[in-house]
Amino acid sequence: MAFTAEELALAEPQKESTIEAWYMDDSEEDQRLPHRRARRSPNKPATLSDLSKLGVTTWQLDADAHETDPKLAAVRKVRGYSYTEIITISKDKLPGYEEKIKSFYEEHIHNDEEIR
Q: What is the percentage of the chain residues whose pLDDT exceeds 70?
């Protein structure tokens, strides 16, 4: 599949990011609560470089424009993403809510990239 220069540029992962990520503690408390290591030591954010070393790639996208966002379209095309889903994480909308949020919290591996 051929890509245009514009698609390749749009699909390029961000070099700088406003993403916020922290090292997690080992607590098994309610997964909806913050689990930053700040409880035992000063809060230490995970840098974009730290995340990159773990294989985390970031793009900043407009979730409200997901159907028409050219950057999202380019990322999907260039990286070969074909599946999409929209889930609402609330007790009213998500069947098996309690089990599902626990599964989100536990480390797990997928054969394909997981993009959220």
A: 88
Task: Give the Cβ contact number of residue 105 at 10 Å.
Answer: 14
CA of residue 85 relative to chain centroid, distance: 14
CA-nearest of 1, 39, 5, 2 to 22 is 39
Could you read off the pLDDT of 85-109 as tens digits, one per residue?
888 889 999 999 988 888 877 777 7
Phi and psi dihedrals of 84, rounded to 5?
-135, 155
C-alpha separations of 62 from 2, 3, 70, 73 in Å: 25, 22, 10, 12
Q: Nearest-CA neighbor of 89 among 39, 32, 28? A: 32
